[in-house]
Amino acid sequence: MIGPRTQSRRFRALLGLCIAAVGLCAAAPTFEVPPNWTQPTAPFHVVGPIWYVGSAGLASYLIKTRDGALLIDGTMAENVPGILRNLATLGVRPHQLRMLLVTHAHFDHVAGDAAIVAATGAKVIAGARDVPALESGVAPGEVDYAPIGFAPVHVARAMRDGDALRFGGLTLKAVATPGHTPGCTSWAMRLADHGKPLDVLFACSLTTGRNILVGNRRYPGIVDDYRHSFARVAALPADVVLPSHPEIADVMAHKSDGQWIQAGLLKRIVDKSARDFEIELARQQKAQ
Asked: pLDDT digit string (tens) for 158-190?
């Protein structure tokens, strides 16, 4: 049974979403979800303790440790049954999923979080500046399509830039990479794969993602944040890049060829994202 506090929180989240949408929904187009975002895939191994357990178009990464498992991104609610099946295939029972890490608070990456928490009891860990969005179900900032909400979820730990999450003998470092959302967080870790040390980066999105860049009332610092993050991410060490959208690093292609270590990949991703950003910013400025 849903308690009055939960009902009130959901009502406030819905009300907030409606208020944020005033003046936008009538003119803004609806968002069409690409079919591969909800296309189930079998789990496959990446490197070390890391497995891919998401859909064909939205990444969800499982990290297995001696003390239980961590999941990065719950993706969409439609994908939760498939993710849970993939965990079971890999021998991870629901109660063994201890933490759910968030890259950023957009519906395609967090709409399934509440269902995963309900099924597993996992604690949600997220960038501090995205906590209000996650706990209200209202995405941060403004976009050029009708806003899409999601089920609110409680955040057990808000991470700031440089904070370390230590669990099961592994350490993940929160790297604040705002722009795509205010609390967009990339997760960095070093692991040993067959005795070889590897720097792995679970990269938060650097794409414009149909964000409003000019006159974004709910996120006025969006342009400066993007530019800061491009410079920040370009300087990070990364032997293996695992983005929240798998096509950015050809994740699906590498599940068969195993070529996870790619020199210069992160810089190429950043360079393309920065170019695309400046083009989109100029377009929006011209349209004003």
From this structure: 999 999 999 999 999 999 999 999 999 999 999
User: Parallel, antiparallel, or unpaired: how do β-strands 123-127 and 97-101 relate?
Assistant: parallel
pLDDT confidence bin for 27, thresholds 50/70/90 = low
pLDDT digits (tens, 9 = 90+) for 190-215: 998 888 899 999 999 999 999 999 99
Crossing angle, helix 222-234 and helix 265-287, to 10 degrees?
160
How many residues make up the chain in this entry? 288
Residue 3, burial from CB neighbour count under 10 angstroms (0-12, 13-18, 19+): exposed
pLDDT in tens, 218-237: 999 999 999 999 999 999 99
Specify the amino acid at residue 202.
F
Q: Half-sphere exposure of 60 toward its Cβ, with a 13 Å CA cutoff? A: 37
269, 75 in Cβ contact below 8 A? no
Q: Are residues 146 and 21 in contact, defined by beta-carbon separation less than 8 angstroms?
A: yes
pTM exceeds 0.85: yes
4-16+35-287: CATH topology is Metallo-beta-lactamase; Chain A (3.60.15)
Cβ density class 222-232: b for 16+ within 10 Å, e for less: bbebbeebbeb
Locate 48 and state its tokens. Answer: 């070390």
SS3 assignment, position 126: strand
In sequence order, which residues have a C-beta less than 8 Å from that of residue 83 and are 6 or more positions away? 53, 54, 60, 71, 74, 75, 112, 116
